[in-house]
User: What shape does this take?
Amino acid sequence: MSEAGKGSALPGVKKIVAVASGKGGVGKSTVTANLALALAAEGQRVGLLDADIYGPSQGMMLGVPAGTRPQTAGEKHFVPVEALGLQTMSMGYLVDDNTPMVWRGPMAGSALQQLLTQTQWSELDILLIDMPPGTGDIQLTLSQRAAVDGAVIVTTPQNIALLDAKKGIEMFAKVDIPVLGVVENMSTHICSNCGHEEAIFGSGGGEKISSDYDTKLLGRIPLASQIRAQADAGTPTVLSDPESEYAQRFREIARTVIADLASAKQADMPFFNIMDD
Assistant: This one.
């Protein structure tokens, strides 16, 4: 185990933040894309690693043309793909869009390790890692191979999503990665016609889980067709409608993440380095 407090252990990166969810379908990747752009809007140099090996989607959300391939630097490194002012890397840049990743866990873990360590990140303040859902091999590989400074958990207010979010928080606790907080996505539905707001997935879940696990509720993001449509179009809300209420909510979350990373005690953030089997 290396000495705590030495940063990310990735050349060119100051801080690493994992964005995770206990289950799929909670809008984690959409939140990650908007959070990355919100951090950049707050003056941070931001990278985004799409670690969802089986279902990479960040390229599409950030408007990267299909078929884009990263350039190489020497024999062992990739140059990040610039997208909307972010440095990005994704398995989606290395395979055909229609090619399924039929890999066992160790193969997926190896792929993540290569993307993480063989990308030539340049002077990043924060590297966001869009994690695959769940608590399996990919998450374990990340905790072993990088000094992650914090995790953001994305959930919906729905009870089953909250149950899986708790597992995600407990997983990060077991590998000594601090949870910066919880983002409650799809917190309410706002009718695009009349503006009526309704908590169709329940309410108060994000607040309760934050209280139960001594972390904070970073923010609530409504279920809005605008957020979905803009992400699908490759122009996430923070970029395409920066003055909207939705964009401002992402900006507030970004400011909290920046402040927490700046004030965190590095001594509480150990770096795990487990040898290959």
